[in-house]
Amino acid sequence: MNTKLSVNINKIATLRNARGGNIPDVLLAALLITEYGADGITVHPRPDERHIRYADVRDLKRKLTTELNIEGNPKEKAFVELVLETKPAQVTLVPDASGQLTSDHGWDTVAHQGYLTEIIAVFKRAGIRTSIFVDAKTEMVEGAYQAGADRIELYTEAYARAASPHRAEAIAPFIVAAKRASELGLGINAGHDLSLENLRYFAKSIPNLLEVSIGHALISDALYFGLEQTVHLYKEQLQF
Ligand code: PXP
Predict the structure, then answer these.
(1) Which class is domain 4-237?
(2) Which of 60, 152, 188, 230 is deepest in the core (most CB within 10 A)?
């Protein structure tokens, strides 16, 4: 199965924002990443616009030829409006608080079932594929299904943090969660802390993995290897 690589470009925007101006050019970087073989671009706009700005998302949607995946918390009204306006291929719902450094937990799809069902219906009516960021737990996968999601995104930090001798142990709950998702007909995405070091084992172990979304490690690797070579290296990890 050919797992797609969606590159999260938030870190490129962080670098640009450090100085003002337009260096590096986020849109150009996204177009090059696509040209080098990535299957999609992910952005995670936050209300304070400290990384990707809402204007970037609009530009990206206009110019990109590959899938755009917008991640974020739909409890922010401005986020929902942006998604409905730009109509990306996919929206990934993430329960992060506005000042949070990065996402650090999945949705509790059982406790928030009613809310998630309502908001997913809003995106579905607009024809946008909807994915929910969840921990690798069967009940959270089942809750995502009940809420009407098209896909789940497995939150991979717990796997990625496990040193290689403990990998088999760390990936076990992800395999169980992925199998349940497939039984229910949910598509499977994954992301967070995936890297050249841990990606191949993950992709090989998870059946029906449709897409990985990778930012921090990939953009950092681009400092050493260059953007083109780095995209190729990550794509290679997904071919076996
Ligand atoms: N998936 C989600 C929901 C995220 O919030 C992030 C980080 O913004 C990622 C994937 C990508 O994680 P990383 O930057 O560690 O590759």
Answers:
(1) alpha beta
(2) 152
Radius of gyration of the chain (CA): 17
Does the pTM exceed 0.90? yes
In tens, the pLDDT along 126-161 reads 999 999 999 999 999 999 999 999 999 999 999 999
**How far apart are alpha carbons 41 and 62 in whole angstroms?**
13
- 112: annotated active-site residue: no
Question: Dmax of the chain from CA atoms?
Answer: 49
Rounded Cα–Cα distance for residues 145 and 97 (Å): 24
Q: Whose CA is nearest to atom 12 of ligand 1?
A: 192
Query: Domains of the chain: which residue ranges?
Result: 4-237
What are the pLDDT digits (tens) for 62-71? 999 999 999 9
Ligand 1: nearest atom to the Cα of 103: 5
Catalytic option among 51, 142, 153, 192 = 192
Contact 210, 185 (CB under 8 A): no
Q: How far is the CA of 111 from the centre of ligand 1 (A)?
A: 23
